[in-house]
## 1
Amino acid sequence: MTRLAHLWYQSRCTACGACIAACNAANYHSTDITNKAWGWLASNIRRVEILRGHRPLLYLIQCQHREAAPCVTVCLTGGSYKDVDGLVKIKPELCIGCKYCMVACIYNARWLDEETGLPRKCMEDECLSQVKAGLDPVCVAVCPAKARAFGDVDDPHSKISRRLAKSRYVRLLENKGTEPKYFVVVRP
Amino acid sequence: MGAVAYVLLRQVKVDNLKAFSWVLFISIVAALVFVVADLSRPWNLVNALTTSFFTGKFGLFRSWMALGIVLLSVAALLLFLAALRHTTNIKMLNAVVDAGWFGVLLAAVGLLVTMYSGFLIAAAPGIPFWNTALIPVLWMFSASVCALALTELMIRRNDITKFIIRAGSGLKVAELIAVLALVNLAVYGGATAARASGWALVHGPLAPAFWGGVVAVGILTPMAIGLVSWSREIKPLLAAAAMLALIGALMLRIVVLQAGVFGPVA
């Protein structure tokens, strides 16, 4: 079984924003339309800063490609679906733009593209093409700090599996029973 | 719940239900129009629904949105038949609408339409304030009050008015308890985002709409008028109470939706 997943190395990340900009450039052709849902640019990754203690904690939030994704469950037409590769994807031809998937996501990982009416999220067309060609998604490819990885967590020899094997990691909101496939490495 | 009211009015042999039935049908059509108007890809509606239905991907048994569209469509059809029955004199139509099973079906669909929108938002895990079974219950009480209000505005019969005053008083109390319980649970027992939503209603930016619109205008004023009317019925006052109850019900739904916020990711 294939289960593609993302890894983000929190302490290695320099918050340069290259992944955010790359997502905007590759998947949305560097459009300057506003992502009103997040008050952000048209990108599938958003930056969340949490002030706790002496310094803020930074999180980069994107679709977690959960094993049990409620956005897939609530979609009335099957437009939001989980593919055999483990990624949660959108079929535009089945999407009516009801936006129910947006309020079903506990990570607020979807945003409304007002031009197409689609609830956009991580793994859009360009990144999917990259993955299909055996390459990394653009956010992983451009990271100058090598703070990202992507691959099949069911393959013990994949880059992501090897990094996870020697790291301490957490998964966001794991206590909700969500089984996210976005691993946040907190320690080597 | 207007459909339930219609069935009950037929049971007590209310004569002229033509206007009432057409108002119910127009309301359901308006509901469907509002649903479609909110879509960001309405041009894809027919294609997406038919494709998903014929490929077995339609989520009737897993998505409240899917169930809601089916229920609204069935309700629209049934209410259209009911409205036609009171407008025309087609024997076959009269036989169908007057049949016992039709009343049971219409009442059941009306009840489900009332509850589905409550379950729709209660089943959205992204907004903690909505994730409570209290919302469908609150929607039931609120919709029942609306059905009574519509009946009071459109049906002229003393025994019906008396029933509305008494039932309305009880339902108003139940609605007030449910509204306050919803806010109380969010503020004192909810997750971080639910607490933020609750406080927004109690003394935040939504407080004027909540306390003024929902509680004072929508619940307490009609309740007070209802209590006065136990001993002395003043028709214009009862009509005003009905209008205020309808406005309050709309305000309730608006503030509950506006108050919903996503939870923190860490």
## 2
Amino acid sequence: MRYIEPHAHMVSRVTDDYERMALAGCEVVCEPAFWAGFDRSSAAGFYDYFCQLTEHEPKRAARFGLKHFSWLCINPKEAEDVKLAAEVIALIPEFLDRPNVLGIGEIGLNKNSRNELKVLEMHVELAAQHNQLVLVHTPHLEDKLKGTRLILEVLKSDKRIHPERVIIDHVEEHTVGLVLDAGFWAGMTLYPETKCSPARAVDILETHGQKQIWLNSACDWGVSDPLAVPKTALEMKKRGHQAAAIDKVIYQNPQRFLGQCPKFKNR
Amino acid sequence: MIYGLPRLEKSSIVNKNDMTQQQVLDLYFLDARHKLIEVAAFLDRVERAGGKEDFRLIAFRAALDTLSSGRNEKVKQVLLAFSDPTTTPIAKAAGKSATGAWAGKKG
């Protein structure tokens, strides 16, 4: 079995996780910019983080034969401070030409505030100006439905944004239809306690199709599982799905979306 | 027993109707039974503790009600029962974390 992990926060994981993922069949890992678990005190902290994502982490992954790609932004969890966000966003263009940068992400909303919405619009403007792919984070738990609706409004109102070049992540049963019906890609995040379980993710594939959906672990410093994607592949196998169908979901689909960025090479 | 399940075969196009109800029960009944008992134990625990029910427990009971409503898409109905249904951005984020239920439903 081969698979692509399209969303993992590897800076928060130990090196052993890279080895376990490689042993499970992972060939490529993609890392969106994330909140560190505490607020960074200045734009300089983000500059260092972007260097970590584009210089150091690819080397750590390469030790296990894994290709490493990244997405850049200031995460919605730090978007309440619009001035800081503007300073960080101004840093991003100098990183966009680096060989492992796929686009802008994970942008979006967290608590659905006005300032978060402003920062989302600033990121969308950046992506449109530089013709970048976009990876969108949707809020957690009770805030997800409202946040998904607000995000879709922003994206659909900008005619420079092409839905097939945007993936809206962390969908669940009450939001996946909104995303797919609008023509966007949908990401399902597999978490032990929140978001989707492997069984529910396969339910969603069975009821909504598998044309524009990927699976990811979004493993980070919290409760999460870097092997969640292969475990969901096993869930599909238990239900009788053939190897070709599993490969489409866990390898070909992320390859098809990410391949829209010319820098994405997984062979 | 899942060990005794016959191997299922499906086409490369996923179809929700390919598994029989018997096969679904064989694969998932024990797991679902376990989770239902955990829910019952949680309710016993929180009720033994006493005190005033907050918005999370109120939303939890509303979500449970959707399970016996006979409506389709039960998981979607449960998620909606916990969700903020409003459409206007809030003025300012007071914190970063979510509680799992919309506080606006309290009372």
